[in-house]
Design goal:
By secondary structure, this protein is mainly α. Helix content is about 75%, strand content about 0%.
Length: about 450
């Protein structure tokens, strides 16, 4: 019965979002109340459960997302993203142009949210494709693959950071596993898939794209942008800090956090915390992308304010996910699921991936699917010995599968590349599925050795 109520609740959530076009955050909160009542929770406890869910979800994640958005905005507004993309593309040349696009998208994708990365990179992709006389989608697929992988696999992006928090996973290990998997998965879903797709859906590769869908674009002169090295360092700064902290932990303490850390242990644990790493990265970006280039303080602060406004609704939606997750936990659904599969021979990692995949297909949003799955899967991990960091990647992979008409990313790709719905399904939807399945395969392989 609890699972039936959850299923009805998800259908109700879909109805509110798709049929009645209700705001996603509002829909999540309404659905949380409805599901809580259906699960028989005491009425005087429901509001508390929802408030606790929102609070626990946004407690430290608001720091990561807020500072991350500000960092990305500074890199974008300064022309740093433009410098990274154009420099790599010019260095690699025509023969290796897809790899140049992958590398540029990967670096930029770490610093920027998926949608922002697309908007920044597509005009560059269009210009390069036109100059070289090649298909826009031939470069667009590697770009989308790299952005999608960073979005689903790598902290400090919303989903992997939030899942790591929910499952008490070491964020540094999530980052290391994510980087190990990101390279092969991106190459499979990017350059390799582009070659295959070009053969079975050739019409999609003949489209000229639709730059007007992006609106007015800021133009940069290369000589006015920050250097390639500084732009790259700024974009990767949070990853570098968290990686240094994790490597220290692995080398000195063999990956086990000491119960009584000394001052050096405490220092590396401090800087490796996602909130601290993002704050340090933001301060560095304010200097490297602002003060060092003699940008007025007023302009720097304006970029930060715009960045916060752009993610305000995302933060609310993530909070709404937390509310829904908490209702499922407090209502006993997580326990029901864990009991259902406690004698199952299926791997908990596969089950985590599967639950996230089903939610992704149903709800559309990768972030919503990932966070909801994390709440349901937490009960499956007890006593299994599964590495929580690998479970984060498994859920992140599942949350990317089969983007279709209920996902905003689907329509962005369709409009920007001027594709039909059929062509978008045959390219973007399949690409996301390749990323998802490849990610799961990689997680299973790593699990054999850790």
């Amino acid at each position: 019965m609890p699972l039936l109520i959850v299923f009805i609740g998800i259908l109700f959530l879909l109805l509110l979002i798709i049929k009645f076009k209700l705001n996603t955050f509002v829909s999540l909160i309404i659905t949380s109340f409805v599901v809580a009542i259906g699960l028989g929770m005491p009425l005087d406890k429901i509001t508390t459960s929802i408030e606790n869910g929102i609070g626990s979800q946004l407690g430290h994640l608001s720091l990561v997302f807020g500072f991350g958005a500000m960092l990305g905005k500074l890199v974008a507004d300064s022309g740093g993203a433009y410098r990274i993309a154009t420099t790599l593309i010019n260095r690699f040349g025509r023969k290796w142009i897809q790899l140049a696009v992958v590398l540029a998208s990967f670096i930029i994708g770490i610093a920027l949210f998926f949608e922002v990365g697309i908007v920044l990179l597509i005009p560059i992709i269009f210009a390069i494709a036109t100059e070289l006389g090649i298909s826009i989608l031939y470069l667009g697929i590697p770009m989308a693959a790299a952005l999608s992988v960073t979005h689903g696999f790598l902290p400090p992006h919303p989903a992997p950071t939030a899942i790591a928090s929910a499952l008490n996973a070491n964020v540094g290990m999530v980052l290391i596993y994510g980087l190990i998997l990101a390279i092969p998965v991106t190459l499979i879903a990017g350059p390799l898939f582009a070659v295959v797709a070009q053969k079975y859906i050739p019409s999609a590769f003949k489209q000229k794209g639709n730059l007007s869908a992006l609106g007015t674009q800021k133009e940069f002169k290369l000589e006015d942008t920050p250097s390639f090295g500084m732009s790259t360092l700024t974009s990767l700064f949070p990853v570098i800090i968290m990686a240094i902290s994790t490597i220290y932990d692995m080398v000195v303490n063999k990956g086990i956090r000491p119960k009584n850390p000394n001052s050096v242990d405490s220092f590396f644990m401090f800087i490796g915390a996602p909130g601290v790493a993002m704050l340090l990265s933001l301060l560095f970006a304010i200097y490297s992308m602002g003060f060092a280039r003699k940008i007025p303080v007023k302009d720097i602060m304006s970029s930060l304010e715009v960045a916060v406004k752009q993610i305000a609704m995302l933060l609310l939606i993530i909070g709404g996910c937390g509310a829904f997750k908490q209702v499922l936990v407090d209502g006993g659904v997580a326990n029901v699921i864990s009991k259902m599969f406690e004698s199952s021979s299926l791997s908990p990692l596969f089950l985590g991936w599967l639950i996230a995949a089903l939610l992704r297909v149903s709800l559309g949003s990768a972030t919503v699917a990932a966070l909801t799955a994390a709440g349901l899967v937490s009960g499956l991990m007890a006593g299994t010995g599964v590495d929580p960091a690998l479970m984060v990647i498994a859920i992140g992979s599942g949350s990317l599968i089969a983007s279709h008409v209920n996902d905003a990313g689907f329509w962005m790709i369709k409009e920007y590349f001027d594709l039909t719905v059929k062509e978008t399904l045959a390219t973007w939807t399949v690409l996301e599925t390749v990323v998802s399945v490849s990610g799961l395969g990689g997680v299973m392989i790593i699990n054999l050795f850790v």
